[in-house]
Amino acid sequence: MHASLQHLFSNQPNDSDNFFLLAGPCVIESEEVIMKTAERVISICKKLQIPVVFKSSYRKANRSRLDSFSGIGDEKALKILAKVRAEFGVPLVTDIHDAAEAEMAAEYVDVLQIPAFLCRQTDILIAAAKTGKVVNVKKGQFLSPESMIFAVDKIRQSGDENIIITDRGTMFGYHDLIVDYRAIPTMQAMDVPVVLDCTHSLQQPNQASGVTGGNPKMIETIARAGIAVGADGLFIETHPDPSKAMSDGANMLHLDLLEPLLLKLTHLRKAVNEL
Length: 275
Fold this sequence. Notes:
The protein is of the alpha/beta class. It is built from eight helices and 13 strands.
């Protein structure tokens, strides 16, 4: 595991040669959904010795339609996330959407995530860095992997060396994404851990309905390929019932499918480590 992340997992029993996982529902819909998902995700990861950061957004600020669900209220949602940490003792990650949100969210979580659409926004990157938290920058769908060095440099020059880059696919026409696996070693050469987002990479954006589509049947394919090429971590959004999810249900993994998938991936990781 990259040295910059070891402090995140210091209280988790885990296999340091394994990949780490960022997982949870897309957005905080209710305490019931979050606590149910967290308990299951964390139990699975403990069993399989996978270091885990629990993920959920306190608000979704980039929905396609005005009538799309965006959250239950920032403070209420962040307090639910804090309950996950208090009950299960795992680190947390959530999105921020504006420089002013960095300090607020940093009071509750361990990793601040910069959405892909905002990865070039200097003021957000600086504000996140100034909190001293780990900053996870999602690579813009519109950027080459090489260009992510500028986001990394903005954070480093602002005094924070705790950086993750997450690849979530590259635009392929108007309605699809494609994963270029060359991006993983390219961005690892920037001396940062690189995560592959296995669920958002399968989004089908810009649909005429204003509701983003997805292809969750391919999550395992994306994840296995990511492990094969040496990704440091995986990002998987999961939900007890994606068909009823308030955001990104079309590309989330059903919670019941998480353990068998992760079991396969841990076996694959061991094989890759022996090469």
